[in-house]
Design brief:
Strand content: 25-35%
Oligomer: single chain
Distance between the termini: 173 Å
Shape: elongated
Largest sheet: 5 strands, antiparallel
CATH class of one domain: Mainly Beta
Structural class: alpha+beta
CATH architecture of one domain: 7 Propeller
Length: 676
């Protein structure tokens, strides 16, 4: 792929990402490759991850990397390879899709005595490095299998997941060993070592999507997992004694709901309850796992304002000054970025030609000395491993912090305010109290418990029988005429409406020229619109119970669908059927409870009818008394009126007779004078 000549040697880079140094010799003044001096160790395929080794590891290396093909390299800070070994990747022969197996995750125990690997097919392997020949061992309960008798041995192998293993975490003490793995099959598996054997302790399926990261905090008593279903589940370890055997299990105690899918998370410290989460919405958030609240967050932007998704984050150790940095990678632009805890971008660099896969932060020196350099290690799918030197000093040589560009304190850059009421707080605002305040106009702070709400006036239907606003049908020559709509709508009902007023012989009206009979007057426009609209409760479906008998409308609640008359008729029919069934050959016998209830209801109905009858009699008597009184008053007033009319007539007749006599006398006098 590439070559270059330097210091009398030829450096070549082939398609397997292998760098070779070849010695050059001169033949007839022409440089010719002579022999290969050295081949630099490197991964020959994509490097998927990097992790730090425990202090004083037997390999003498500082970190290790693994490639997609299962090759593991141990490296020093000078880039010297301290050793390597391979993880076996089984390829199923009966697989439906022809996809080669890949090493996805590799972790080392805190004490450095074994490795745990997870591949593309969901297989977990515990590999222990040894430095002597080991014979092949097989046991019925514990599957031991020798991988390389000179370097490592497979302690435990199990099919843990049905998909790609995404993360593995290990908690190790002198007494306990716990391994937790997660995968794209939405499950979290917990393995524990009991004595000399490993076994599955618990399977957790709390998530509904792929699980991307797991963490063990507080000495292994809390288990956290984040998923692309936008949740972070917090679990707590509980133990109980069953028949003298101590059994453990992780129980969910809290679920943190995010606005976007969680990509990666890291702990602030071993004993701290705070958690740093990177999400798909290009945010870095800090949570308190005890309360589930968001403490702070910032958007992963740069100087130009462009934001990226941080696929992997690593937090530096706590120092005496309290200043910490957050390093991460972004596959969006293949960059490596460093932020402070306030969200200020400190630096960003590019180097990998293809995607960046992982990052690790190696700190040298003591925690008190903040001027010690940090080494950032990154890996990529281009097969390269890069070591970056970073000075964590936040000041320029004078000790001022002006070199760090801080974000302006803008209102638009802050988080939006929120005040979400809980269910208990919302329960205090009952709908009844709100409606009463709105109707009566009483403020919520004034006690209106003693004031009853006003009664609402009943609104009758525009098409009801008792609506007096509609025109009544004219009745002529003893025949009933229906009201017809002039709109031409065939769907308009032609139900006859009965009127109590007859058309007198001399009344004015429209006459039919052909038949000579009178027709009904057309209703006004408002009545036409009301008649053309079919009601929700059509009166045509009611035959006998429409409240009209012999042309007289019943005003006592006939526009109600469940009136007393209808209920009485229904009850009468039911009682008849019941009497016929009891007297006939009906199957079964009545229960004593049913008979008692029936007698009770019949007694109450009879009592109510009796009260109704007494009230009706009293009402009729009162009406009769009032009618008699009105008749007497009318008689008295008629007598007085007649006497007044008679006296007036007498006076008028007397006056007219006096005037007539005077007129006669005047005529007589005129006649006498004329004769003289």
């Amino acid at each position: 792929m590439a070559m270059a000549s330097m210091l009398g040697h030829l450096f070549t880079l082939d398609s397997n990402h292998s760098i070779k140094i070849i010695n050059m010799s001169t033949v007839d003044s022409v440089p010719v490759p002579n022999s290969m001096v050295r081949e630099l160790p490197a991964h020959k395929d994509a490097v998927l991850g990097v992790r730090l080794l425990p202090n004083n590891h037997l390999s003498g290396a500082s970190f290790f990397t693994w490639s997609i093909g299962g090759l593991v390299h141990f490296w020093s800070l000078e880039g010297v390879n301290r050793g390597d070994f391979s993880i076996e990747l089984e390829q199923p022969t009966d697989s439906e899709d022809d996809v080669s197996n890949e090493l996805r995750v590799l972790r080392i125990s805190p004490m450095g005595d074994y490795f745990v690997s997870g591949d593309k097919y969901g297989v977990l392997r515990l590999v222990s490095r040894v430095y002597k020949n080991v014979q092949c061992m097989h046991d019925a309960e514990i599957p031991y299998r020798v991988i390389d008798s000179e370097t490592q041995i497979c302690i435990y192998g199990v099919k843990a997941h049905s998909g790609d293993v995404t993360d593995i975490t290990i908690h190790q003490t002198e007494k306990t060993n716990t391994i937790v793995s997660c995968a794209r099959d939405r499950t979290v598996q917990v393995f524990q070592r009991l004595g000399d054997s490993w076994g599955l302790l618990q399977t957790l399926d709390d998530h509904t999507a792929s699980v991307s990261k797991v963490l063990l905090l507080e000495n292994g008593t809390r288990l956290l997992s984040c998923s692309t279903d936008r949740t972070v589940v917090v679990r707590e370890l509980v133990q109980r004694d069953i028949d003298g055997v101590l059994t453990s299990a992780y129980v969910p105690i809290r679920t943190l709901v995010l606005k976007a899918s969680a990509i990666h998370m890291t702990q602030v410290s071993e004993s701290s309850p705070y958690l740093i989460v990177s999400s798909m919405d290009r945010q870095i958030q800090k949570f308190d796992i005890n309360t589930g609240k968001t403490l702070s967050s910032f958007r992963t932007t740069d100087d130009t304002g462009d934001a990226v998704v941080m696929d992997c984050i690593s937090l530096s150790k706590e120092r005496s000054t309290g200043r910490r940095i957050l390093a991460g990678i972004a596959t969006t632009d293949k960059s490596i970025r460093i932020y402070d805890m306030n969200g200020n971008l400190i630096d960003k660099e590019w180097g990998h030609t293809e995607g960046v896969t992982d990052v690790a932060l190696l700190e040298t020196g003591s925690e008190e000395n903040e001027t010690d350099a940090m080494i950032l290690i990154s890996t990529g799918t281009d097969g390269t491993i890069m070591l970056w030197d970073f000075n964590p000093r936040f000041n320029d040589g004078s000790g001022s912090e002006s070199s760090v560009s801080s974000k302006p304190d803008l209102t638009a850059a802050k988080l939006p305010i929120r005040r979400i009421l809980s269910k208990s707080e919302l329960g205090e605002f009952t709908p009844k109290a709100v409606d009463r305040d709105v109707i009566t106009g009483t403020p919520s702070g004034i006690n209106s418990a003693n004031s009853s709400p006003p009664r609402l006036r009943k609104r009758n239907s525009a098409l009801g029988i008792n609506n007096k606003n509609l025109p009544m049908t004219k009745v002529g020559q003893g025949r009933v005429e229906p009201v017809r709509s002039d709109s031409g709508d065939s769907s308009a009902p032609n139900t006859p409406l009965f009127g109590a007023e007859l058309n007198p012989p001399g009344s004015a009206g429209l006459e039919n020229k052909k038949g000579g009979r009178e027709r009904s007057v057309s209703p006004p426009e408002a009545a036409k619109a009301a008649l053309n609209r079919r009601p929700s409760n059509d009166s045509r479906s009611k035959g006998k119970n429409n409240g009209v008998v012999n042309g007289n409308s019943n005003d006592s609640g006939t526009n109600q669908p469940n009136n007393v008359n209808s209920l009485a008729e229904s009850l009468l029919k039911s009682l008849r059927m019941f009497r016929e069934g009891v007297g006939g050959n009906a199957r079964g016998a009545l229960r004593a409870e049913t008979i008692r209830e029936l007698e009770k209801e019949l007694g109450l109905a009879t009592k109510e009818l009796g009260e109704k009858g007494r009230k009706k009699k009293a009402h009729d008597a009162a009406n009769a008394a009032s009618e008699q009184l009105m008749t007497q008053l009318l008689d008295q007033y008629s007598e007085r009126l007649m006497s007044m009319i008679g006296s007036r007539l007498d006076e008028k007749l007397t006056k007219e007779s006096g005037q007539r006599g005077r007129v006669q006398e005047c005529k007589t006098c005129e006649d006498i004078s004329g004769q003289g």
